[in-house]
Design a protein that fits this description.
Layout: H1 2-17, E1 27-28, E2 35-36, H2 38-54, E3 59-62, E4 77-85, H3 87-91, E5 98-105, E6 108-116, E7 121-126, E8 130-135, E9 138-141, E10 153-157, H4 166-179, E11 182-184, H5 189-197, E12 203-209, H6 211-223, E13 227-229, E14 242-247, H7 249-259
Parallel strand pairs: 3-4, 10-11, 10-12
Antiparallel strand pairs: 1-2, 4-5, 5-6, 6-7, 7-8, 8-9, 12-14, 13-14
This protein binds D-MYO-inositol-1-phosphate and calcium ion (2 copies).
Length: about 260
């Protein structure tokens, strides 16, 4: 079943890589600088249709069209999908966007997969079984770094669609900048979480995200030995938008104290 799931997500990645004339199919969504392309919709439609054949008992929630259904993530089996995480990067041909797929059971992520089709990196985790990176036919275990915050890189998401959160975001950015080696803003929340899981960065903060942004990456970080919560330490919820703080245990604790 997982093999088939991974194959489908790779195929969905081909849809992203085949994109031409992206600019022609852009629509503006609610919020500031929030776009959707015909490829976001095409990837979601492809995955919904194919996954429904593999998992007929599951519900499906995706960023496009079914965002209002997030309450369905708290009971039974449900997939939550971000068809393209990093849409602005995608529109700009920045080469740093991904597909995020999580399977939830009664509000807990049991399977998380994040796929960057540009690098062919497939980050996977299964609850209680660990997290792995599949790339170039090889499989490697993911493990967060042991570096303290002061020797670390801080990743920031700017919550671009919520202007009311920009002051808070830039104040946190300054704090983390002053207490770590440097900051990065890469443009995909799901890939930011994978960078933490793979020990390439130490903490990640964003003032608000939706479950399709974090459901898969959260499990990948936890299974790699990291911590993911809301910035005040409370658990992330699956049926609403939440702020997020993730990191290796030492860097996470240090950042949480700084942001309190
Ligand atoms: C966005 C990206 C971005 C993050 C935003 C997300 P989208 O997702 O993950 O890095 O800062 O908060 O909404 O809209 O490209 O799927
Ligand atoms: Ca997203
Ligand atoms: Ca998206």
């Amino acid at each position: 079943m997982h093999e088939q799931l991974i194959t489908l997500i790779r195929e969905a990645g081909e849809i992203m890589k085949s994109a031409r004339d992206i600019e022609r199919g852009i629509e503006v969504k609610e919020g500031d600088a929030n776009f959707v392309t015909e490829y976001d919709s095409a990837v979601q439609k492809f995955l919904f249709e194919k996954l429904a054949l593999l998992y007929p008992e599951a519900a499906f929630v995706g960023e496009e069209d079914s965002a209002d259904d997030i309450a369905r993530l708290t009971s039974g089996k449900a997939f939550v999908i971000d068809p393209i995480d990093g849409t602005t990067n995608f529109i700009k041909h920045f080469g740093h966007s991904c597909i995020s797929v999580a399977l939830c059971e009664n509000g807990e992520t049991v399977l998380g997969i994040v796929y960057n089709p540009y690098t062919d990196e497939m980050y996977c985790a299964e609850a209680g079984k660990g997290a792995w990176l599949l790339c170039g036919g090889k499989r490697r275990t993911l493990q967060v770094s042991r570096q303290p915050l002061e020797n670390g890189l801080s990743l920031i998401g700017t919550s671009p669609y919520y202007t009311q959160l920009h002051d808070r975001t830039f104040s946190v950015m300054r704090t983390l900048f002053e207490h770590s080696l440097d900051i990065r803003r890469c443009g995909s929340a799901a890939l930011d979480l994978c960078m933490i899981a793979d020990g390439r960065a130490e903490v990640y903060f964003e003032a608000i995200l939706s479950p399709w942004d974090y459901a898969a990456g959260m499990l990948i970080v936890r299974e790699a030995g990291g911590i993911v919560t809301q910035p005040d330490g409370t658990p992330l919820q699956m049926d609403r938008k939440c702020g997020i703080l993730a990191g290796n245990p030492a860097a996470y604790e240090a950042a949480k104290l700084l942001l309190a």
